[in-house]
Amino acid sequence: QDTDEFILPTGANKTRGRFELAFFTIGGCCMTGAAFGALNGLRLGLKETQNMAWSKPRNVQILNMVTRQGALWANTLGSLALLYSAFGVLIEKTRGAEDDLNTIAAGTLTGMLYKSTGKV
Hints:
mainly alpha, 3 helices, 72% helix
């Protein structure tokens, strides 16, 4: 049996384009950043409050670190994913080709723009 599994509109691609994948990329990076930041915040919170007894102020301080770090990392990775996706879509539309050069160029431009702000 050599038929397709899904019915596609006439002229539609069998794979998702870069623009369609951008939403998954941005959302995935935000969620990954939030999870990593929360774990990092928990680590930092426990380290900074190790001399305190277990009490409400210590719990609140740890939770503050978890939410602060989670939001920081989610925003950072989400912004990078947004830049990468936007550059990728623009390069693909400009060149009219869908290949690995678009990915390399989008990653390079994202890194250059991110580092140009003076962040270390």
